[in-house]
Design goal:
It contains four helices and nine strands; from the N terminus they run βαβαββββαβαββ. It has about 140 residues and is of the alpha/beta class. It has a single domain (about 5-140), classed as Rhodanese-like domain (Oxidized Rhodanese, domain 1, 3-Layer(aba) Sandwich), CATH 3.40.250. The strands form three sheets. Strands 1-8-7-2-4 form a five-stranded parallel β-sheet. A two-stranded antiparallel sheet has the order 3-9. A two-stranded antiparallel sheet has the order 5-6. Strand 7 (about 80-85), helix 4 (about 90-100) and strand 8 form a beta-alpha-beta unit. The chain is globular. Pfam families: Rhodanese. It comes from Kiloniella antarctica. This is Rhodanese-like domain-containing protein.
């Protein structure tokens, strides 16, 4: 089956792209409670900000019908690299596909997301993903 978005990258690859490419943007598609209670990537050290636009709306978790329009209004453009992040790399694939269908040409899924899979104790953020890679992040 043909891939419907630009591809998958690791958190470390995404971080390198954000540092090296002035046009690259980070789009976090988790829910508002996740932004507030789990934390968000901190791009302040490289002079950028994380675009936090939920793909699904908490608590019902329905698809955000305004998602594509919100991305357009955020200032991100259809041809710039957009690195898309969720908790574990699942919702971000759906968001990347939706944006690609809407005409965005460089949407990348960040594999393992912000927290990655749970460890043997059921805790996330230790095995893989943005947090486990030691990339800057902050909590509100």
């Amino acid at each position: 089956m043909e891939q419907k978005y630009a591809g998958d990258v690791s958190a470390s690859e995404a971080w390198a792209t954000l540092q090296e490419n002035p046009k690259a943007a980070l789009l976090d598609v988790r829910t508002i409670p996740e932004f507030q209670f789990v934390g968000v990537p901190d791009l302040s050290g490289i002079g950028k900000e994380t675009h936090c636009l939920p793909w699904q709306v908490y608590p019902q978790m329905q698809i955000n019908s305004d998602f594509v329009e919100a991305v357009k209004l955020s200032g991100m453009t259809q041809d710039q690299p957009i690195l898309i992040l969720c908790r574990s790399g699942v919702r971000s694939v759906s968001a990347a596909v939706a944006l690609t269908v809407a005409g965005f040409t460089n949407c990348f899924n960040i594999e393992q997301g912000f927290e990655g899979p749970p460890d043997d104790k059921g805790h996330r953020g230790n095995l893989a993903g943005w947090k486990a890679a030691g990339i800057p992040w902050k909590q509100s």
